[in-house]
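Subject: Interface between my chains keeps coming out wrong

I've been trying for a while to get a sensible model of this assembly. When I model each chain on its own everything looks fine, but I need the whole thing in one frame so I can look at the contacts. Pasting all components below, labels as-is. Any help appreciated, I'm running out of ideas.
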Amino acid sequence: MKRVTSISPATLPIVTPLGKFTARYSEKGLAELEFPGQKTRVALKRGAVERVPAVVQRWHRAAAAALQSIFAGRNPEQLPPLAPAGTPFQKRVWKALRKISPGKTRSYGAIAQAIGKPKAVRAVGGACGANPIPVLIPCHRVLAANGKLGGFSGGLEWKRQLLAREGVKI
DNA sequence: CCCACAAGTCGCT
DNA sequence: AGCGACTTGTGGG
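Reply #2:
Try treating it as a single job with all components included. I did that and got this:
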């Protein structure tokens, strides 16, 4: 997956009970969300949050609230606009993922069928791995057909934890 | 353009 | 449980 590293208007932290996430916003909305403990995080200087555009601050509040909701196992009432960069195929997959509500799971094969490419099962896995906005785009709710976890780019522990918070037993 | 790989799945042993 | 065949999108050479 090739992605252009453009200058984002804002990179902001989201502090949660599970750690400090990092959100990156483009002009169009939330572009990336990083799990706590990633090396690429950017330290913010004091007062930096106040200098980002008002619209981004609004998105950021929505993103933070949405994260909290999901960690509590609930469906977020409101989401910021999601603007992940990806290929057309990946975007189709990500769109399909968003239809899985908290506490539910789907198989990679089911997602492949949902986007009209029933044989592209493996490619769906690839697209999940390339998901720039984990949690909000719930790639953690996709399991292998045999009910096992499959993989997770943020580490399988995260996948387990997220599912547990939604009341899913493996 | 060709090649290797991947967060899969199914069938067979 | 293990193994191979099959498949498709993606990135590197």
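Reply #3:
Confirming on my end. Residues 88-165 of chain A form a domain with the Arc Repressor Mutant, subunit A fold (CATH 1.10.10.10).
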